[in-house]
Write a structure and sequence with these properties.
With 237 residues, the chain is an alpha+beta fold. The protein has seven helices and ten strands. It is globular, with a radius of gyration of 26 Å.
């Protein structure tokens, strides 16, 4: 039997290569079309052009605004300006002289890359030791219970007790992994969620978790409907 010459096999090889290239090209086009169709397009932004500074009163029932300093903030690195589009820091005091610190950090777009800083990150970065980290439920109003966390952070000179929650669109992730998953799921459905972190804390001796929860309820009751939506999302209004 004669061995095939180069002329015998060249046309078959060329045809096979052409078909393979066509199939690969079609696959690439399909993948590109699927990625384009699944690209998040609907930006969820409950705050809009309003400012948290204007939407949160400086008087909340018996609590009055007294200062803007003294709060532990995320580290100042090159990413900080991208972490939040708005940041509110206030200290309130009641007639008994007890003080509560409020931090509200808002990002109008969570794309899965830029994430909100959690106290578990920024407090140890500031030299604090976290002696308590536990899941918590913050009752904001009737039938509105927010998944949150209770943390106690300490240094040699300061003990701070806090509750905090994060909201990503309609999700309330307690952990970093849950936070990334919440963004991914909503991106998959075509939504670009907004992101919120609310931290309510105190260094006043005698102010415990019950008073922090009570302040959260007072905050919710004394803001307008738009800010309530920012605090708890659309499904829990």
């Amino acid at each position: 039997m004669n061995k095939p010459t180069l002329i015998d096999v060249a046309p078959k090889s060329g045809l096979l290569g052409t078909r393979r290239e066509m199939l690969m090209g079609a696959g690439c086009l399909l993948a590109s079309g699927t990625a384009l169709a699944m690209k998040p397009r609907n930006q969820v932004d409950f705050l809009g052009k309003a400012t948290i500074e204007d939407l949160v009163p400086k008087r909340l029932a018996d609590w009055n605004f007294v200062d803007t300093s003294g709060l532990v903030l995320p580290p100042r690195d090159q990413m900080q300006e991208r972490l939040y589009t708005q940041l509110l820091t206030r200290t309130y005091a009641d007639p008994n002289g007890e003080q509560i610190m409020l931090l509200i950090a808002y990002n109008s777009m969570q794309d899965g890359v830029i994430q909100l800083h959690r106290p578990e990150i920024c407090y140890p970065a500031g030299g604090f030791r976290l002696t308590t980290i536990e899941p918590h439920i913050t009752p904001m109003a009737q039938n509105i219970d927010i998944p949150s966390r209770h943390i106690v952070a300490e240094t040699g000179l300061r003990r701070e007790e806090m509750i905090y929650w994060t909201r990503m669109g309609d999700y309330f992730p307690r952990r970093w992994s849950d936070q990334r998953w919440a963004v991914f799921v909503q991106n998959l459905h075509g939504d670009i969620p907004d992101g919120l972190l609310v931290r309510i804390s105190s260094i006043t001796q005698g102010v415990g978790i019950e008073m922090l929860d009570a302040f959260a309820r007072i905050l919710y009751a004394n803001v307008n409907p738009r800010m309530r939506q920012v605090l708890v999302g659309a499904k829990l209004r």
